[in-house]
């Protein structure tokens, strides 16, 4: 996906809607810029939970079963 933003006279840009939505950005959020030999990278800086994306094992789609399994696992730690 290639999107464009124009730099204003005050060096400001508008983040395209598609990017704001994909990064779940809202007003007052902070973005982080990094530059390397490949180009420019922009990340949502104040959304630390995003670094854990894909970290959790999603388990089954049966919520009651998942909760019971979690309780069982937790109770084993305290025996």
Automatic annotation (TrEMBL):
Top-level taxon of the source organism: Bacteria
GO molecular function, one term: DNA binding
Gene3D superfamilies: 2.10.260.10
Residue ranges annotated for the SpoVT-AbrB domain, each copy included: 5-50
Keywords: DNA-binding
Protein name from the UniProt record: AbrB/MazE/SpoVT family DNA-binding domain-containing protein
């Amino acid at each position: 996906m290639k999107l464009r933003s124009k730099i204003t006279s005050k060096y400001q840009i508008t983040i395209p809607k598609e990017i704001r939505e994909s990064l779940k950005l809202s007003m007052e959020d902070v973005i982080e810029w990094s530059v390397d030999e490949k180009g420019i990278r922009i990340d949502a800086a104040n959304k630390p939970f995003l670094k854990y994306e894909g970290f959790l094992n999603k388990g089954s789609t049966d919520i009651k079963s998942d909760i019971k399994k979690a309780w069982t696992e937790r109770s084993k730690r305290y025996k």
